[in-house]
Amino acid sequence: MIKGGNLYVNAIYYMVITAFTIGFGDIHPDDMVSKLLTCFFVVLGVHVVNILIILQTYVWTKLKNKYLSTVSEPKRTRVITGLAVVAVFCSIFGGMMGICAFENGENVNRIEDYTMNSTDSFYLSVMSLSTEGFGDISFKTIAGRVFAVIWLVMFHPMYFSAMAYLMNLAVKTIIGIPN
Questions:
Q1: What are the TM regions of this chain, as residue ranges (predicted)?
Q2: 164 pLDDT exceeds 80?
Q3: Any domain includes 43
Q4: What secondary structure does DSSP assign to 107-150, as a single string?
């Protein structure tokens, strides 16, 4: 487990990182009971993320039907594709700006005297959203972890929904299925 920091922030951060199957490796279980609870939480967390994505898809469909019902089909596809691309960019660059602000604002890494540059924050943003989490870089400050909890819960489902839509559209385009 991690030493120092706020116990509650670390616990919530650990739950979100585990539920979204990112696993940076900066916080990990160290005894049998916590390992078993972590396994249970991973299985449960995948379903929680799925519920968030389903809820977001439901809201997205309601909004699409309400505001795009009068728009012709080719134009509707372009609008939805544009919104999906904007959602992906907002997820990545919103995370990048938050990482720079919150990780560098409360520089706890005085031992290394390291501040996160834009490349590192972009890398951490993409690795977090794509659920890679290699463990070479992670959120180290309390403010950064609070930001990670809020940002990942809000943007992770949006990122995955937008990427799924874009991949589906790409496959349809390659195969030649009309939209």
A1: 6-24, 36-59, 79-102, 146-167
A2: yes
A3: no
A4: ---TTTT----HHHHHHHHHHHHTT---SSS---SHHHHHHHHH
